Amino acid sequence: MKISVIGTGYVGLVTGTCLAETGNEVLCIDIDQSKVEQMQNGVVPIYEPHLDILFERNIKANRLKFSTSLNEGLDHGDIIFLALPTPEDEDGSADLSYVLGVAKNIGKAIQNYKVIVDKSTVPVGTSDKVREVISKETDVEFDVVSNPEFLREGFAVDDFLKPERIVIGSSSEKATALMKKLYKPFVRSGNPIIVMDERSAELTKYAANSFLATKITFMNEIANFCEKVGADVDKVRVGMGTDSRIGKRFLFPGIGYGGSCFPKDVKALFKSGQDNDYEFNILKSVIEVNDTQKKILIPRIDAYFNHDLKGKTFGIWGLAFKPETDDIREAPSAYIIEALLKKGAALKVFDPEAMQNIEKKFGDTLTYAKNMYDTTKDIDALIICTEWSIFRTPDFDKLKSNMKNPVIFDGRNLYDLEDVKNEGFYYSSIGRNTTNS
Ligand code: UDX
């Protein structure tokens, strides 16, 4: 099949590359000329595990191409994926200007039947808006389909190639048949292609992400309460998660959820509720609790150093919003950095992938360490913000000899309490007793 993907962010690039992998001829369009040139030269512009191998293979096989010309894209594809940004507006709602702008151009350029697929996370009713905008410009037959993505950064390729489910919102049999044909190779395992109306498909994405964000937030509150009553959240988590109605996943407490999806989607669903005369009280709390959770380590650090952080130096391990990505959007680390700088502390930071992105944001206000141990030289305390595997088994002796004080504030519960205690550390984590050697 001939596929065009408009927008080559995380979602567009993974979608285009993985669709080429099953033999489709894919043309990816982006307005950013230097990015397109980079991709034409075989360079993947983002860090996403395994994407580079598929990318190279499909470019070589002539199945994956790139262009800045929207018209070329609209001409090429029988199916046109819209993987465009839907940034948060000032009021929290999703900004649809990119999606509707491209829809208008589609209306102007369309010559024969096309299926337009909304891949971006868009509020309920957007497919109707896209249809309306295109219809104003043309009489040519087309269909609009909602096909939300459920890709996790760091696992996006695997999630695309082996999805647990594909959701297709479509009211056209012709479009549904084409979409099913396109996705058939990805659901050989028997996982379902779930077809529903467009509005339900659009809401499915928001409901799924908001539910997961709520699950994490609930666990963060339980963790905070554990500290008040002397319980251990790791034990509570296992005790709860073994109930199959609850499930073990997404119960890990920490310093809040971040990333490009959860924060934006929870806010957008809340705003969408208000626009439709419905108050999502639960989501309001989720947003508030998560904002506080991101900064939960700050008062602890402050108290430990007698409310005077001027002249203190802290090391930070982990800057990306989660492991296996270089993405720092809504990362708790950024909130912690801002708060500590404001209190006059100096910071040395390290992340296996996100150094460039954090440097773009913070410039020369931070010291950028060469590796994880370099971060710890002469620091007053170590703060862990992201649970990269490399941080899980440090050489504690090396840490102790590097650091001024053996003090760790861990926002991701990486270590066993007994282990760090035996190693002689003051160790403060989330939802567990603070150990003091
Ligand atoms: C998410 C959804 O999982 C994906 O289906 C959707 O399409 C896009 O948004 P992603 O943002 O890549 O994917 O990250 P995810 O792995 O879901 O983690 C989101 C956030 O939750 C991270 O900040 C992570 O640290 C946090 N998290 C996750 C927890 O704090 N605890 C957990 O138990 C799980």
TrEMBL record:
Domain UDP-glucose/GDP-mannose dehydrogenase C-terminal: 315-417
NAD is among the record's keywords: yes
Coiled-coil residue windows: none
UniProt keyword annotations, A-Z: NAD, Oxidoreductase
Pathway: Nucleotide-sugar biosynthesis; UDP-alpha-D-glucuronate biosynthesis; UDP-alpha-D-glucuronate from UDP-alpha-D-glucose: step 1/1
Major enzyme class: oxidoreductase
EC number: 1.1.1.22
Family note: Belongs to the UDP-glucose/GDP-mannose dehydrogenase family.
Protein name: UDP-glucose 6-dehydrogenase
